[in-house]
Every structure is written in structure tokens, then in C-alpha cells.
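Researcher: We're teaching a course module on how sequence relates to structure. For the next exercise, students receive a sequence and then see the predicted structure as C-alpha cells, so they can try to spot secondary structure elements on their own. Here is the exercise chain.
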Amino acid sequence: MSRIAGILAVASLALAGCTMQPRPQLTPIGDAIPAGVSLAGRWQLRAEEDDAARRIREAEYKSGGGVGDAVIPAKRDRGRSQRGPGGPSVYVFLRTGSKLKITQTPDGLFISFDRSVVEEYRFREHRLVNVGPIEADRASGWQDGSYVIQTLDGKGALLQETYALEEGGEVLVRIVSIVYNDEEILSLRQAFERLL
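Model: And here is the predicted structure for the students to work with:
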């Protein structure tokens, strides 16, 4: 009897050590649109910053996210991305393009990438988003004069995008980062000039 009790005690300790930590959770971001801030307009990526797709693909490959398309560029079919089984899937939610059109309403933003893919963000949203079978938690809102979008996949990889105006509103700066396993695996800054 004591031998069985010992085996059960060891088994329960082993199971206790295997318990998973709770998955990180996102919380709603920001409260209201900052007075006088509008990201609306047509924007062109500066030519010297046109290596974003390559850098994103490299980060995805290094993180084990697969060797398929890291970003679903505006002109590609959403179903073509192939993910490796070991890495994060948050890359499927990352869009990029050399031309952006942003429409800002009292309730949200609509961002068109190369006039092909349009993403919609509601101010202070917190919801589940998906691309095909891949789901993630999404929160977005205004924070310190910038619009922040956070997307957290099932493996704990966090994609954060920040949009802010500089140079008197003539330059839109987009900062993209992905953190996975407590390591920043992508850090990208893009500057877009306002088109007339």
C-alpha cells in the first residue's frame, strides 16, 4: 500500500510540474481619439524603407513559423500561407504595402494596403480575429497620440503595430514588432509620406 501511495505522490508531483502557465491576455487599449489627431489620408512608403517584406519573411523563418509566406501581401491569396507546426502563427495577421489609404471615422480606422486588402479596427476593440482556421486575440485603440494594434496568437506570440504622425502630420510612421518566447523577433519602422 505504501508503495502505491509513493507512486501516486511522485505522479502527482510530476503532473503539478507540467501544469501550464496561463496564456497572456490582452486588455482594451485607450479611451478616446486624441483631439486633432487624424491618420486619414493616402500615404506612400519611402523608397529606402522598401525591404519590409524580406525582413518579415526572415523573422518568420528564424522563429520557426514556417517557410511559407510570412506576410500575406495585398495581392496574394489568403489561403496560400503555409505555417510550420512549431512557430507562431501571428504572421498571418500582418499586412504590408507600399501605399496605404487610411479612412478614419468617429468609431474606427480602415487601412487599405496597396488598394487590395482592407483591415478594419474599431476604437477600443477587444475581440477574436481569424484568418481561415487561425485565430488570435486582438485589442486596439489610441495611446499617447498613436494608434496601437495588438494581436496575440495561441502560442503567445504578440504582434504590435503602432501608427503615429510626425513632421507636422506629413509623415506617417508605422512601427511593427513581434515578441515570441520573451524575445523580440521582429522590429520594423516604416515611414510613409502623405500624397496630395
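Model: If you want an answer key for the exercise: Confidence is low (pLDDT under 50) at residues 5-21, 66-84. Residues 29 and 141 are 5 Å apart (CA to CA).
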